[in-house]
Write a structure and sequence with these properties.
Oligomer: single chain
InterPro entries: GAUT, Glyco_trans_8, Nucleotide-diphossugar_trans
Main location: Golgi
Strand order of the largest sheet: 3-2-1-4-7-6-8
CATH architecture: Alpha-Beta Complex
Enzyme class: transferase
Pathway: Glycan metabolism; pectin biosynthesis
Membrane topology: Single-pass type II membrane protein
Number of strands: 9
Mean pLDDT: 85
Number of helices: 16
Structural class: alpha/beta
CATH class: Alpha Beta
Distance between the termini: 87 Å
Order of helices and strands: HHEHEHEHHHHHEEEHEHHHEHEHH
Amino acid sequence: MPHVKCIFFWILLSKLCFTSNSFSLNRLFAQQMERYEREIRESKFAELMNKHFAASAIPKSIHCLSLRLTDEYSSNAHARKQLPSPELLPLLSDNSYHHFVLSTDNILAAAVVVASAVQSSLNPEKIIFHVITDKKTYAGMHSWFALNPMYPAIVEVKGIHQFDWLTRENVPVLEAVENHNGIRNYYHGNHISRANLSETTPRTFASKLQARSPKYISLLNHLRIYLPELFPKLDKVVFLDDDVVIQRDLSPLWDIDLNGKVNGAVETCKGQDKWVMSKLFRNYFNFSHPLIAKNLNPEECAWAYGMNIFDLRAWRKRNIRDTYHTWLKENLKSNLTLWKLGTLPPALIAFKGHVHPIDPSWHMLGLGYQNKTNVENVKKAAVIHYNGQSKPWLEIGFEHLRPFWTKYVNYSNDFIRNCHVLE
């Protein structure tokens, strides 16, 4: 009997030990899994940060292109020839032509926008492009279009410094935006150290990083709000971002009746792509702030910047620019608590009540952040927009969407070839 008791005690002890060991192993396994998940999560955020830096940097090939073309401007008289030629200057204010405005410091991107518009047009001889750039890029941009004319279209290249009206005295709020410490820290600071990564998702973090592109504090990005003053003799213009490609004749845009509205734009609150086309005012503004809650409706539909037809005659009768400035100042006073995403939020307010929706097929968005973009829909769109970090001229661009852009890059050009652009 004592022998049986010993056996029973041994079995019981073994079970207890096994249970104890099993519990320890499970706890160890759970800790290990938790550590792996934390490391995977941290690596995902690090990947997003690296992508943000890659999106903000200037590729070596594009920097090379700008430098070589700037050098060409100083040494080659053909690169400095007047754009357009003197006999064509009166056409720059002729409203029987189709006037496009492009504001950028990216020469390669500008070349693609203009080439795609001209090649897609049924009447390219009616096209006039007004390309506006900054002082440092002006010589290189001028060289490109002087040496690569887009005949029969007309291209004008101007630097911001060449507009007498566009001075710091006339737009002091922009100087405040560029020099505001909070803004500089927001766009150039350590984005991870200030973020609570345990309480945010990678997708939300990616969205916030996209909103922190330094381009949002550039005067070139705010320039569209001054179109009526920059082009006082023009009645209608189409404004294009530099990350678009034109795939269809855009001349019918000038025939759209805006019904007295100022801005013809595609609404972004309905569409097949629920990620890209689901933007309401609540996506852009902080409705916990009383000033926003009092003045705006969170369910109001947003619209797209990047391909807009502007009726400048109607615009000149409105106080859109002053409203834009007022809200920029309010956001500065509130230490950027009204909104954080670039130039679209103040424009959503300034153009409120002045927007005429146009058919979504005119402007397809999201090619710079939606990897699952429907390629068949891309083929049908008049203008495709690589808004987002994954620009087609960057290594992080989506490979299956890049060909829609690269087809307009002139790889036979000596400057493109020598700088190994998208080699």
